[in-house]
Design brief:
With about 210 residues, the chain is an alpha/beta fold. It has one domain: P-loop containing nucleotide triphosphate hydrolases (Rossmann fold, 3-Layer(aba) Sandwich). It has 9 helices and 5 strands. The protein has a 5-stranded parallel beta sheet, with helices on both faces. The radius of gyration is 17 Å and the shape is globular. The two termini are about 10 Å apart.
Length: about 210
C-alpha cells in the first residue's frame, strides 16, 4: 500500500521522539523534517536561520499572538513578512513552511505545533511520544555526559517551553492524549518497538480511510 500520510510527532524531551521520527520516515521511504523546518522558513521569509533558532518553539506574548492570528485569519499570508514585528514573521513563516512541505507529499514532521498547522489536512496523523521522567533523565544524562540533576533540570525546562508553545498557539493541550491520534510510551516498547507500533497504526488508519 502506498504511503500517503503526513505524520506529525510531538515529544517529551528525552523520549526519543526525534530519533523515532527519523527512523519512521526512513522505514516508509519518506522525508523527515525537524531542524530543516527552520532553514525552509528562513529561506522563504528572507530572515536568517539564526533568528528562527532563537525563537524555535517559544511562545510570544498574548498581544503579539492576537495580531498574528488576526493577520493569518484575514488571509494576508500571500505576503506575510512585510511590516510585521519579528515574532509575527517567525510564527507565520514556520507555519507556512510546514504547510508547503506537507503539500509536497508524505513526510514526518517533528514538533513545532505541526499537527495544529495541518489540522485541516485529512491525511495528517498526529503522534505524541512520552516516557517516564526517570527514564528520560538517565537517557539525557548519558547522551549529554551530564549529571542526573542537570539532566532533570534540562528536561523540565525544555518540556515547559514546548508545552507553552503548543498550548499558546493551538486550541489543544500539549501531551494530553486527547490532543493526538496516538500517544505512545517509548520506554515500554523501546525505539524500534515504538516505530513498529506507529507503522501498524498508520497502515491501519490508511486502510480504513
Amino acid at each position: 500500500m502506498e504511503m500517503n500520510s503526513i505524520i506529525t510527532i510531538g515529544r517529551e524531551f528525552g523520549s526519543g521522539g526525534r530519533e523515532i521520527g527519523e527512523k519512521l520516515a526512513e522505514s516508509f521511504g519518506i522525508k523527515c523534517y525537524d531542524k530543516e523546518l527552520l532553514a525552509a522558513a528562513a529561506k522563504e521569509s528572507g530572515l536568517c536561520q539564526e533568528i528562527f533558532a532563537v525563537h524555535d518553539e517559544r511562545p510570544t506574548n498574548s498581544f503579539l499572538y492576537s495580531l498574528v492570528m488576526n493577520t493569518y485569519s484575514l488571509g494576508y499570508v500571500s505576503n506575510p513578512y512585510i511590516d510585521m514585528p519579528l515574532d509575527q514573521r517567525v510564527f507565520l513563516a514556520q507555519f507556512d513552511a510546514i504547510k508547503k512541505l506537507a503539500n509536497q507529499g508524505p513526510c514526518v514532521i517533528v514538533g513545532r505545533c505541526a499537527d495544529y498547522a495541518l489540522c485541516d489536512y485529512p491525511n495528517c496523523i498526529s503522534i505524541f511520544i512520552h516516557a517516564p521522567l526517570e527514564d528520560r533523565v538517565k537517557s539525557i544524562s548519558a547522551k549529554n555526559n551530564i549529571g542526573e540533576g542537570a539532566a532533570k533540570d534540562l528536561i523540565l525546562k525544555t518540556d515547559k517551553k514546548r508545552a507553552s508553545y503548543y498550548n499558546f498557539y493551538s486550541n489543544k493541550k500539549w501531551g494530553v492524549s486527547s490532543s493526538y491520534d496516538l500517544s505512545v510510551n517509548s520506554s515500554v516498547l523501546g525505539i524500534n518497538g515504538t516505530i513498529e507500533y506507529i507503522k501498524k497504526f498508520v497502515e491501519m488508519k490508511e486502510g480504513r480511510n
